[in-house]
Design brief:
Elements (H helix, E strand, L loop, with lengths): L40 H4 L6 H5 L2 H23 L15 H25 L2 H27 L1 H15 L9 H14 L11 H4 L29 H11 L1 H32 L6
Helix pairs in contact: 3-4, 3-10, 4-5, 5-10
Subunit structure: Found in a complex with GP6.
Subcellular location: Membrane
Keywords: Glycoprotein, Membrane, Transmembrane, Transmembrane helix
Length: about 280
């Protein structure tokens, strides 16, 4: 029998180490889906130190709008109504028009300082805005405290001054005073300061303005004391303030909150600019 046998075949010769061989194909890798990274929280919520840059112009903008509105009303009163509501002879320039114009100017200039300081990041303007708001806030608190402490004295002085102002009712240069008294007496259904007898030294015995009559007509106030309003306008005004104290308190709180927010945001932005080393232009 030879060395080759059908039952014992010879193994194939080993492949030469330098021979080329085709590697076995590998299966394609299964593609994996990479999750999309979520946007950072700062994309939705800016850093806290950046908030004053966005929020500070809001309170000054409110100041500017209110100031422009008050200034417009004051100019309209001054042009169309003259010295409207100049009640006090001790302070002839203390008219409603002048008060509204002065208040509107202060409010508008204050808002302008805050807006320009926030937009330009000017530390000088921001500090000026803060100081003005602080002075106004302290003045409001001081005046409010003095008013409640000396309320009786304020009431007595106001009544006395208003009664002296009645002497100017029929004078030529005080049309605004006459119009103001006529409107108040007709709208609030009152007569005089404390009562209808306040007009007797001014217009004559048993004589009141026609607007004091319950049914207004020409010369209805002459020699008539039965069909006129008996309550004084000073008490009527006090009753109006008492009836609307909740509304007035809400308005006062809104003004106070706006002032405090403006002060807080201005000082926060001032400190942020100071920390980042930004300098304002001289």
């Amino acid at each position: 029998m030879g060395w080759e046998s059908a039952s014992h075949p010879c193994p194939p010769p080993p492949a030469h180490p330098l021979s080329l061989s085709t590697p076995a194909p590998h299966p394609d890798p299964v593609p994996t889906r990479t999750p999309h990274p979520s946007p950072p929280l700062a994309y939705f919520c800016p850093p806290l130190h950046y908030l004053p840059h966005r929020l500070l112009p809001a309170p000054p903008s409110l100041f500017q709008l209110c100031g422009c509105g008050l200034l417009g009303v004051g100019i309209w009163l001054s042009v169309s109504q003259g010295n409207f509501a100049t009640f006090s002879p001790s302070f002839p320039s203390l008219s409603a028009a002048n008060l509204v114009i002065a208040l509107g100017t202060v409010v508008m200039v204050t808002g302008f300082l805050g807006c320009l300081g926030a937009i330009k990041e000017n530390k000088c303007l921001l500090l000026s805005f803060f100081i003005v708001l602080l002075v106004v806030l302290l003045a409001e608190l001081i005046l409010l405290t003095l008013f409640f402490v000396y309320m009786d004295t304020v009431n007595d002085n106001a009544k006395r001054d208003l009664k002296e102002g009645l002497q100017l009712y029929n004078t030529e240069n005080n049309v605004g005073l006459k119009n103001a008294w006529n409107i108040i007496q007709a709208e609030m259904r009152c007569c005089g300061v404390t009562d209808f007898t306040d007009w007797f030294p001014v217009l004559g015995e048993n004589t009141v303005p026609d607007r004091c009559c319950m049914e207004n007509s020409q010369d209805c106030g002459r020699n008539s004391t039965t069909l006129v309003w008996k309550t004084g306008c000073y008490e009527k005004v006090k009753m109006w303030f008492e009836d609307n104290r909740h509304v007035l308190g809400t308005v006062g709180m809104c003004i106070l909150i706006t002032q405090v927010l403006g002060m807080a945001f201005s000082m926060t932005l001032f400190q942020q600019i100071h920390r980042t080393g930004k300098k304002y232009d001289a």
